[in-house]
Structure formats: C-alpha cells, structure tokens
Structure prediction request, 366 residues.
Amino acid sequence: MLSVNELERFYERLVDCQHPIDLFGPLSEDKDKDEAKDALRKLRKEFLQMCHPDRYQNEEARVVHISTESTSLVNKFYVDALTSITTGVYWDRKSFRTTGTPRTTIKTATREYDIYSKIATGSLADVFLADYTEDGSTERVVIKVVSDTDDNDLIRNEQQILRSVRHKSMPTLVESFTTTEGKDASVLRYIDGYDLYALRENPMYKDGVPAEHMCWIFERQLSVLGFAHSNLVIHENIEPGNIIARPSDHNAFLTDFTFSVSNPKDGDYIKCVTPGYSAPEVAKKVQPLPTADIYALGKCMIYLVGGNVDTGAIPAHVDHRIAQFLERLIDPDYKTRPRDAWELHEELVDLRTEVFGKERFKALHI
Ligand SMILES: Nc1ncnc2c1ncn2[C@@H]1O[C@H](COP(=O)(O)OP(=O)(O)OP(=O)(O)O)[C@@H](O)[C@H]1O
Ligand SMILES: [Mg+2]
Prediction:
C-alpha cells in the first residue's frame, strides 16, 4: 500500500499519461506481442495492488476518491494497451496532428507551437487550436490568450489552480507564457469533446439530450466537483460553455477556472454572475460556498435535458426520480440546498441503476 502522498503522485502520473505506453513502458524489447501482454498483465496487477480502494477504505473521502479514480485509469489504459498491442500500434505513439496549414508559430522557452484556427472568443480570452511535436509525436493543445492585459491576474489564478489540483476531469496545463504584448497565456491539452452548448445545438437534440446521457456527464461533474471542493477550490462559474463532454470514454471535464477561488476567506464573494446559472445568493455577495457550484451544475443539467433554465422546469421525458433529484440541487435557499457533491454522486450512481438498470456504455451520437 502506498502512503497518501505516494498515491497522490501516482494519480498525477496517471492523469499525465496520454497513451498506454506512457504508463506501462515498452513492455517487450523486440515488440513481441505475447511477451508484451504477459508483462502488461503483471504490471497492471502491481499497479492495482498499489492503488485499489479496498486498501484505502479507512482513509478520508478524498483519498478513497483518488484510489477509485486511479484504479479506473489503470484499467482504462490496460484495455487500450491490450487492443493496441493486438493491432501492433502500441509502440507508435499516436500523433494528433491538426489538419490544415498553421497560421503562425509561437516559440516558448521549451516548445514550438503551430497555431491553427481560433476556436472560441471568450469574454476573457481567445482560444486557439495548436499542436507541438515532442519525442517524435505530435500533441494537440489549445492556447488561451487573455484579450486584455488587465485580466492577466484571472488567467494566472486559473494556472495556479490547475497546477495545484490535478484531476482526470480537469484541464491539464502544459505550460504558461506571456506574449510580446504582455498578455498571459495558457497552453492546455486539447479535450476532444463538445461543450454543453455544442451538444444542445445539435439538431438531433433540439428538445434536449436524453437523460441517460445527461446522467453520465452529471456523474463525472459531481465527482470532479467533490474533488475540487475537498481541495477548498470553489469553481464559481459553472455554465454550459465550461463543461466539455468527451463521448469516446464518457469523461466530462470541468473547465475555465479563471474566476475560481482557492480557500475562500472572510470578505471574499463570487465575482462572476451568470444569469440563469448563478445561485440567487451570488448576487447578495455571500461568501463563496460549494452550494453555489451545486446549484449552477443543477441548472446546467436542466439546460442539457432541454429544460427551462430561468424557471428550472424539467421536461416530461425525464424520469420523475431524476427530475426530483435535480430539483434539490436548485433549491433557491443555500442553507437547505445539498452541499456535498460526493454524497450527491453516490446517490446518483444508485439512482442511475434504479432508473436505467445496470450501468452500461451507450454511445452518444453527435
Ligand atoms: N482544453 C480545451 N480543449 C478543447 N476546447 C477547449 C479547451 N479549453 C477551452 N476550450 C473551448 O474554448 C471555450 C472557451 O474557453 P474558456 O471557457 O476556458 O475561456 P473563457 O475566455 O473564459 O471563455 P468564456 O468567457 O466564454 O467563459 C470553451 O467553451 C471550449 O469550447
Ligand atoms: Mg468559459
């Protein structure tokens, strides 16, 4: 069994892995498939012995969470490794080259980025698609450049949070730099997914995304929110543009920590009000509390299933048990609203089984 500190480092290493070979290494010197699979099984067993939640049952919830997440990542990489050994591509780190001709290039102290299209113009920053090549493989990233140097402190706040709190459902900061115009910028690993606005804009989902799909996004969000809160980070700006769902492995990322607060003190209050999504107490400038994030997440899920964000009305196609669960999150009174994202996560896991049967992977068509 690892110490808590070692387990945390192991989890961070897992979060950093992009390909199975990053975790399991070359496995066989001459790329023999049988030898590689034997070595792989042995390594997986060793890793699971190190991180399995059974070993951390008596630890605090945060540690149990890290061990559960680590176990699921080891298993995910194991399955990916088995498949890629069988097809023979295990040893070739997959390249994610962007198609098209780069518009320009940016050189930092450590890397050179080819910049392609602008993919978003946010209220605070412009986001560009880019890639870089390292150790023979190309990785795709986004570069988020602040629009106005007055907002440099906000992007620096996000960088600090992303450096100190690492989670498989949070963006990975590759590096940060300042442009020649003095604008701060973050290089973030590209998330191959869709934010919730993009999902709803799909004509197939004009009446809302089916509740079954909303639920896996919801479950991942409660999981990462519980982790952020256990690290005393309040997100403060949860809205559909800041949740990116990745259908390929049913991960859903909580992004955009520019307005987040780490370890709120007396006198702090939430500075970002998003109509329809911010909890009523936000306008009253109360101290940042986890309950504000829980409210905003509830509203995002109501938006996703095609509900009315202003009234909180949930469409009839959503099972009444799920509708009732969602309604608890948007309790206008933060004193009676649920405050523990992990407790809600546990409830949702059970509710999903009750409503949809045993958990199963159903493809989300986009
Ligand atoms: N790592 C990423 N991978 C893929 N797309 C991303 C990534 N980060 C951000 N985006 C896209 O860029 C958009 C804007 O990013 P972000 O919310 O971080 O910046 P912002 O300037 O604060 O935006 P806004 O003011 O709209 O909230 C997101 O909604 C998302 O579509
Ligand atoms: Mg945003």
